[in-house]
């Protein structure tokens, strides 16, 4: 664990600080994200208690930004964790058993890869209406695929390693071999890909929200904020620049960190 | 004056002095060999003068009258590409996979400034290094060639521009034992024919002593001893050289005194292992065919063969960690089931040790847990404190101390890691160890100490051994009998001394000749 902490690099710190701010700010700000200040519609930055001003119906930008970051990252981390669990379970099973089972399981993954996932998500939204749960399902449906492939490859490589054979010769039951020998040795790579999955999910969620298919108003996310900002950018460019910039910072930092971890572990 | 002369060379990397005061000289038509363990600076000393390592050299380095350290970049490039040729250890990775053999050879010659070679000339070069059907080979891609053939192509490429100096860095280490002799003989012929000066680097004294005129022994960045090969081998002066000589097994040394053997423990009858071809291709690979052998109590059996001969597969089938297609293995007359059905009591009888000691220990585990693993499963009723005592005892048995208990595999040297692996193998009191090339990844000195450890265990614990190896000479030091495998078949089996003295099968003759 300490080794892991020492490996944390500045980009991750930036993201952690942003998450901290997103959690603390709503508690200390005088405005909530859905509260309308009738006196100050489209207020410029630093006017009164609105540090970043207000949007076109008078809601505090900073409060909305904090709430949007919370929602976006929550969806992203939750979806990434789901993809981690499903991906490891699926990939490790396929890789460990091998043979025909592996073929079948991985062809299923290929088939899912081939589906036009955006189209399916949009269809789901149209049929069942918008809900944060559907966003989860839609994202979860695709994001575990890469993880499953990566984990399968790692497990297949590990299976050939002499220490696994030695454990078998030592009478260690297969379940214990997987739990004590295989999983700890793929944890690093899985963590790296988890770190790379988070920004992907952020992108997907923002994209869905931008299309109006994401979370429901007045709940907000960075994608929705970008969309609102884009609609109003000729009047108040700040409304687009702030959530857009935040999105870029989060994506870039997580990707740099994820790729760095991937290089370390694989 | 020598063609290539190095005086008082010092090599630094990042301010750290790794090689100190090294003198090397090679005369035209002669061979100088540098011998040393890994990390002794032998490769560094050979490659740094040509800027092939990140190191910085100081001292005096003269090649054919050019001082390489004072030369400008152009002269240096000329020296490297025109005057010298290089052969490296890994023939499998040294050729570009997407170019044909002919194209690579042509490019190598052109790079070195020789005029463009015609197809006929290229084929001649390949013929010169002993490749048959040379014309056909020119159009083949590297993956069609075996390891030995690729190394021949590498040699052809290295001498295509007729250099004056050939630097060969462990040219045979990655090859099969039976091929090593052939490649060394080829290098000898070329040297005599073209008056090449040859600088050979090796960790293995046995493989160069018959080929080098001059030997240089290096240890930790210094030259321990150097001199004409005959003098050095018959009258080594320094302690390190003497130990190196003693650690290098020879077929002509007196037969060792081996412990007596008892009744038959393990007996295999017509064991075959057949794999389906990978992917969707039809067909089968017969790794082991109808292998029958027996090992007695306290006996050591050498299972010898080239790579791909099926010796590891056979060993794994016996140890119950690999597939078994047909045939029967019995333990003192009782049937020993295959991989999935072998129960714990039977597993405890036979334990494996692998070639790569570091890869055979889980990198996430501590030494204490690694050694305790078999005990936990095979003798679950032993309580925690007794287990700790037994772990410590096993560690002492393999010559390591208490201070290793909390180390991780990454912090162990190859020899220490192999000792830990042996401790894990013996802790649950097995009667048979299956050692799959257990010493071949180690330096000669370390390897011979592991061999010695095995001989001690063989005596003190009356453990039987199956020693899977390609190295007959070192197997002879502890093994009573030998079984030679070739393409899955046991082609010869018998008492070690009689098989070595009068090998019958072609595969055996090749292996004996190579040792």
What does this structure look like?
The complex is a heterodimer of chains A (266) and B (515). With 266 residues, chain A is an all-alpha fold. Chain A has one domain (2-265): MetI-like fold. In chain A, 76% of the residues lie in helices and 0% in strands. Chain A has helices spanning 2-7, 10-28, 61-97, 99-114, 117-128, 132-159, 162-169, 174-210, 222-231, 238-265. In chain A, helix 5 runs antiparallel to helix 6 (132-159). The radius of gyration of chain A is 22 Å and the shape is elongated. Chain B has two domains: 4-247, P-loop containing nucleotide triphosphate hydrolases (Rossmann fold, 3-Layer(aba) Sandwich), CATH 3.40.50.300; 264-361 and 431-514, Rossmann fold (3-Layer(aba) Sandwich). In chain B, the strands form four sheets. Chain B has a six-stranded mixed sheet. In chain B, strands 16-17-18-13-19-20 form a six-stranded mixed sheet, sandwiched between helices. The model of chain B has no long low-confidence stretch (mean pLDDT 87). Chain B has 19 helices and 20 strands. Helices cover 35% and strands 26% of the residues of chain B. Chain B has helices at residues 42-47, 73-83, 101-111, 119-128, 134-137, 147-159, 177-194, 205-208, 229-234, 239-247, 311-319, 344-347, 367-378, 384-397, 414-426, 444-460, 472-476, 496-501, 506-514; strands spanning 4-13, 16-26, 31-35, 56-63, 66-67, 84-87, 165-169, 197-202, 214-219, 222-228, 264-276, 284-296, 300-304, 326-331, 334-336, 350-353, 432-436, 464-469, 481-486, 489-495. Chain B is an alpha/beta fold. The chains are: A mainly alpha (266), B alpha/beta (515). Chains A and B meet through helix 7 and helix 8 of A and strand 16, helix 13 and helix 15 of B.
């Amino acid at each position: 664990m300490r080794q892991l902490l020492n490996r944390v690099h500045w980009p991750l710190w930036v993201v952690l600080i942003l998450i901290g701010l997103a959690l603390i700010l709503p508690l200390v700000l005088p405005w909530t994200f859905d509260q309308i200040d009738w006196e100050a519609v489209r207020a410029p930055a630093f006017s009164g208690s609105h540090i970043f001003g207000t949007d076109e119906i008078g809601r505090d930008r900073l409060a909305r930004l904090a709430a949007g970051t919370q929602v976006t990252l929550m969806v992203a981390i939750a979806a990434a964790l789901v993809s981690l669990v499903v991906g490891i379970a699926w990939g490790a099973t396929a890789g460990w058993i091998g043979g025909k089972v592996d073929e079948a399981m991985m062809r299923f993954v290929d088939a899912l890869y081939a589906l036009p996932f955006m189209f399916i998500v949009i269809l789901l939204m149209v049929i069942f209406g918008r809900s944060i749960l559907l966003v989860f399902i839609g994202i979860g449906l695709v994001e575990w695929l890469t993880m499953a492939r990566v984990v399968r490859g790692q497990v297949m490589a590990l299976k050939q390693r002499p220490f696994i054979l030695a454990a078998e010769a030592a009478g260690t039951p297969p379940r214990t071999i997987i739990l004590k020998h295989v999983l700890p040795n793929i944890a690093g790579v899985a963590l790296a890909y988890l770190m790379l999955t988070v920004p992907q999910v952020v992108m997907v969620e923002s994209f869905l929200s931008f299309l109006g298919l994401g979370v429901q108003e007045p709940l907000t996310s960075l994608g929705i904020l970008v969309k609102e900002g884009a609609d109003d950018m000729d009047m108040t460019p700040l409304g687009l620049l702030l959530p857009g910039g935040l999105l870029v910072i989060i994506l870039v930092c997580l990707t740099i960190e994820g790729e760095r971890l991937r290089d370390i572990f694989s | 004056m020598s063609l290539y002369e190095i005086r008082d060379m010092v090599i630094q990397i990042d301010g750290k002095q790794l090689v100190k005061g090294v003198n090397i000289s090679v005369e035209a038509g002669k061979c100088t060999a540098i011998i040393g363990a890994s990390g002794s600076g032998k490769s560094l000393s050979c490659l740094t003068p040509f800027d092939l390592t990140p190191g910085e050299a100081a001292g005096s380095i003269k090649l054919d009258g050019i001082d390489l350290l004072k030369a400008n970049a152009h002269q240096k490039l000329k020296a490297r590409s025109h005057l010298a040729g290089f052969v490296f250890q890994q023939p499998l990775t040294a050729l570009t996979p997407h170019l044909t053999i002919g194209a690579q050879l042509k490019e190598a010659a052109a790079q070195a400034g020789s005029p463009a070679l015609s197809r006929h000339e290229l084929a001649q070069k390949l013929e010169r290094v002993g490749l048959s059907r040379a014309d056909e080979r020119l159009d083949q891609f590297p993956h069609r060639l075996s390891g030995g053939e690729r190394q021949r192509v590498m040699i052809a490429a290295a001498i295509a521009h007729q250099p004056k100096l050939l630097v060969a860095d462990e040219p045979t280490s990655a090859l099969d034992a039976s091929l090593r002799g052939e490649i060394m003989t080829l290098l000898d012929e070329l040297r005599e024919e073209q008056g090449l000066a040859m600088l050979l680097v090796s960790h293995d004294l046995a493989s160069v002593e018959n080929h080098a005129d001059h030997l240089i022994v290096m240890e930790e960045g210094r030259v321990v001893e150097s001199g004409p090969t005959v003098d050095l081998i018959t009258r080594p002066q320094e302690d390190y050289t003497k130990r190196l000589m003693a650690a290098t097994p020879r077929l002509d040394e007196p037969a060792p005194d081996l412990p007596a053997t008892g009744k038959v423990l393990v007996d295999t009858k017509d064991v075959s292992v057949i794999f389906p071809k990978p992917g969707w291709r039809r067909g089968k690979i017969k790794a082991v065919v109808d292998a029958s052998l027996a090992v007695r109590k306290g006996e050591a059996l050498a299972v010898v063969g080239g790579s791909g001969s099926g010796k590891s597969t056979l060993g794994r089938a016996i140890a119950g960690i690999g597939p078994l297609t047909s045939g029967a293995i019995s333990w003192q007359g009782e049937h020993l089931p295959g991989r999935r059905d072998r129960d714990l009591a039977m597993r405890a009888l036979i334990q494996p040790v692998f070639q790569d000691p570091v890869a055979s220990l889980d990198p996430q585990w501590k030494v204490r847990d690694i050694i305790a693993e078999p005990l936990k499963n095979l003798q679950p009723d032993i309580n925690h404190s007794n287990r700790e005592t037994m772990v410590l005892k096993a560690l002492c048995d393999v010559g390591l101390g208490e201070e290793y208990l909390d180390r991780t595999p990454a912090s162990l040297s190859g020899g220490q890691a192999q000792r830990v692996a042996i401790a894990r193998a013996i802790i649950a009191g097995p009667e048979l160890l299956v050692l799959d090339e257990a010493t071949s990844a180690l330096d000669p000195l370390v390897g011979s100490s592991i061999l010695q450890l095995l001989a001690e265990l063989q005596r003190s614990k009356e453990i039987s051994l199956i020693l899977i190896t390609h190295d007959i000479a070192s197997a002879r030091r502890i093994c009573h009998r030998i079984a030679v495998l070739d393409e899955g078949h046991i082609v010869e089996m018998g008492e070690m001394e009689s098989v070595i003295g009068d090998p019958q099968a072609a595969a055996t003759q090749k292996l004996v000749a190579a040792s």
